[in-house]
Specification:
With 213 residues, the chain is an alpha/beta fold. 27% of the residues lie in helices and 14% in strands. The chain is built from 6 helices and 6 strands. It has helices at 19-26, 44-56, 69-78, 100-107, 118-123, 187-199, and strands at residues 4-8, 31-35, 63-67, 89-92, 134-139, 172-176. The chain has a 6-stranded parallel beta sheet with strand order 2-1-3-4-5-6, sandwiched between helices. The longest helix has 13 residues, at 44-56. It is globular, with a radius of gyration of 16 Å. It starts with a strand and ends in a 14-residue tail after the last helix.
């Protein structure tokens, strides 16, 4: 069993936003490290190179859990990287096929707010065929500033549409009752993360299980 994991925050955030999820996963036995990065100012390739170096520090294996942009970076860092240690990836509310809200920001002249993460947020990924199993947890409580831009259609978490989190090639997908930021504090989301890291699939038969206290 891989007992180590790395957490990645989303855009406009820092590692401290992952504290609650970190404590819950530590409560079920994981050794947790938060990978802090500059989501707007740093060059994407520099961030990915730093993340890969962080992964290599765990030769026995390490899981990765990323929120929003963080989940996308996890996939990019691990794609076609056979030299990295084993482990699974969980993406929380990540617009893996591209964000309509990000494109709306660009069209309204505010693309600079996303800095050097703009391109990956607008375009997303095409497919996942990397070596790691990937699970995606989406939120369905539509509360957030993203709805003010009018770019989100269908069930969503206030910033990212559930449909935007469905990338071909992933291993499993589930939806929890949480907003885009609230998913970081959701017991249900934490339980699903723990289930996928342990078993390689989510607990679809129930949405009652909790992790930690």
């Amino acid at each position: 069993m891989v007992e180590s994991l790395i957490l990645l925050h989303g855009i406009w955030m820092r590692g401290v936003t992952m504290t609650v999820l970190q404590h819950r996963l530590e409560g079920v036995g994981y050794q947790v490290e938060t990978f802090d990065y500059f989501s707007v100012a740093a060059r994407l390739q520099d961030t990915l190179a730093n993340l890969r170096r962080c992964l290599l520090a765990y030769p026995d294996g390490v899981h990765v859990v990323g929120h929003s942009l963080g989940g996308m970076l996890a996939l990019l860092a691990c794609d076609e990287q056979s030299d990295l240690p084993p482990g699974r990836i969980v993406c929380l509310a990540s617009p893996l096929i591209g964000s309509a809200n990000a494109r709306q920001l660009g069209e309204h002249g505010a693309g600079w707010l996303m800095g050097r993460s703009r391109d990956v947020l607008e375009r997303g990924l095409q497919h996942w065929d990397g070596p790691r199993e990937v699970g995606v947890v989406a939120g369905e409580i539509p509360v957030g500033l993203g709805n003010m831009l009018g770019g989100v259609e269908g069930p969503n978490d206030g910033t990212v549409a559930v449909a935007e989190t469905r990338l071909s090639g992933i291993s499993d997908h589930c939806v929890v009752a949480a907003s885009h930021t609230g998913i970081l504090f959701s017991r249900e989301a934490a339980a699903q993360v723990e289930a996928f890291l342990r078993d390689g699939h989510f607990r679809h038969e129930t949405r009652e299980r909790t992790v930690g206290k």
